[in-house]
Amino acid sequence: MFRSTVCGSESGPASELNQAYNLTPADLYNLNAKFIENEKETQFRSYLINISWSLSMDASIRELTATKICVTSHGTVRHFECVRCSYTEKFQSQTTAGNQRWQFHYTGFPVEPVTNYFIHAYNLPPANINEDSSSKSLSLISPGCNDHVMKYSKSCIEEGSLWNPNITVCKTEAEVEVNFTTSSLGTRYILFICDTEDCNDHIEKETNESRTSVKLPVGDRSNNITVKIIPYFPKCQHDCPRRTGTLTTCIQNYSNGANTIDSIGRYMCFILVAIFITVCVTVAVLHFMKNHETIMKRTFFHRANLHQFVKVLVIYPKEVCFHHTVLTFAKFLHDSCQIDVIIDMWQKRKIAEKGPVQWLTAQKEIADKIIFLCSSNISTECDESCYKNIGNHKDNSDCMFALAFNLFCSDLKNQSSLHKYIVVSFNEINSKDTLPAALKICPKYYLMKDIDNFCRHLSIQHSQTNGKSTKTVSGWRSSIRCIPTEEYSMGIKDNGEVTAAAECNSTRLLMGLI
């Protein structure tokens, strides 16, 4: 069963001291305390005292109502504070459900640096008069301002725990020059010159500057000199933390005038050298840019074009072997021509999310070219090794082919985007004429016979409404002289349009897609 306490400050004696009791609880079994960092977010960091205790395992625990804890601190200021932790319910058993002693803790006494804390705790109701008084006590000493947490407390910061004077000590012939950074906490500082353990010579400095310099006479003293700076801050006054600086090597100044002239000469020399180098580099760069302006422009735009690749959507009927024909063709376009290829089998998840019509419409918009593949003679070996591995993909590809042809018919009617469509076949002699007649108005290429013209077709520049953008087949380097074929230069004839339009209309009626 769970037990908890409610703790609150209690400055006076406990009310239980005013009466006698027939039964009183036993003493605490043990008492512990430690410093923990305050997790409450403030601009300062500090410690709190975490006090924990456990109860004795005997029947007197039924009489226990509260535990009182008092803390006395002896530091810069003496302080006394008590809290009363009342138990929310009467104890019905001597141990917890796990057969362990009842344990409790309280966190809340703030901690000051370098302070002795005496902690005293006892159970309530207390022992009666003339009876043995039972209690537990312990003591703790808090860390000083050098502690990694305490140095960020408000008290330590006000005593200069975060002050870093960055002291430099330089000895000339008969004096020591001390430079240090002052603190915003005070303006008065005392500087001591120490030779071994002798620190009798000192000087007081008062300044409002953020960085100050002080010269101290040292006579014929050795080079084993240290400087101690004692600040005067309102919080700690004359007992503030000291900072020490050691002697460093410096250049002797035999003549202030000569030293000034020498310094000015060095600075002027450095400035002139820097100006000369800057002018030479600028002239060289301008000369190079003027002589290589054309090359630089070509290189820049060539590299920019390499990042714009042609996107090709490949459409194929169910008669085309997917593994041996479609994938091989796609690999050729990607590896040899650096073309981004779009195939429905590679985007099944997107097709399932959007639906085939919306997916195909979106791909048609982003694609630069749409290729319809013609079926060739398919061997029995291809049927057995390929189609049995792709299930109902033949039906899906046939459906996608019909949808793509329907989009083509819409573009044919609206006379838009017709430049995107291409027909590709891999066998000029044995190619089956399975494509709809409407596609005959599209450029047709036989691979690999027309490979040069085919790749050149893909690399044609496309003009847009707002300016021009060029997409190139950057990976194609043809060593064969390209001669345009009849199919490449084919235009849209009037009788072809009539036949194609009629076939498209009949296809729409049969499919009911548009």
Give the name of the CATH superfamily of the largest domain.
Interleukin-17 receptor A/B, fibronectin-III-like domain 1
Number of domains: 3
Structural class: alpha+beta
Low-confidence stretches: 253-260, 299-307, 461-499, 506-514
Shape descriptor reads flat
Largest sheet: 7 strands, mixed
Per the CATH scheme, the topology name of the largest domain is Immunoglobulin-like
Strand content: 25-35%
Cα end-to-end separation: 73 Å
- Tell me the name of the CATH class of the largest domain: Mainly Beta
As laid out across the biggest beta sheet, the strand order is: 12-11-14-15-9-10-13
Mean pLDDT: 78
List the total number of helices: 10
Tally the beta strands.
22
Examine the secondary-structure arrangement and name the CATH architecture of the largest domain: Sandwich
Pfam family, one: SEFIR
InterPro entries: IL-17_rcpt-like (IPR039465), IL17R_A/B_N (IPR032356), IL17RA/B_FnIII-like_1_sf (IPR038683), IL17RA/B_FnIII-like_2_sf (IPR043046), SEFIR_dom (IPR013568)
Keywords: Cell membrane, Glycoprotein, Membrane, Receptor, Signal, Transmembrane, Transmembrane helix
Protein name: Interleukin-17 receptor B isoform A
Walkthrough of the structure:
This protein is of the alpha+beta class and 514 residues long. It folds into 3 domains: 145 residues, Immunoglobulin-like; 84 residues, Immunoglobulin-like (Sandwich), CATH 2.60.40.2150; 131 residues, Rossmann fold, CATH 3.40.50. It is built from 10 helices and 22 strands. The strands form 5 sheets. A 7-stranded mixed sheet has the order 12-11-14-15-9-10-13, with no helix packed on it. A 5-stranded antiparallel sheet has the order 1-5-4-7-8, with no helix packed on it. Strands 17-16-18-19-20 form a 5-stranded parallel sheet, with helices on both faces. Strand 16, helix 4 and strand 17 form a beta-alpha-beta unit. Helix 6 packs across helix 8 and helix 8 packs across helix 10. The longest helix has 36 residues. The radius of gyration is 47 Å and the shape is flat. InterPro entries: IL-17_rcpt-like, IL17R_A/B_N, IL17RA/B_FnIII-like_1_sf, IL17RA/B_FnIII-like_2_sf, SEFIR_dom. Pfam families: IL17R_fnIII_D1, IL17R_fnIII_D2, SEFIR. It is a single-pass type I membrane protein.
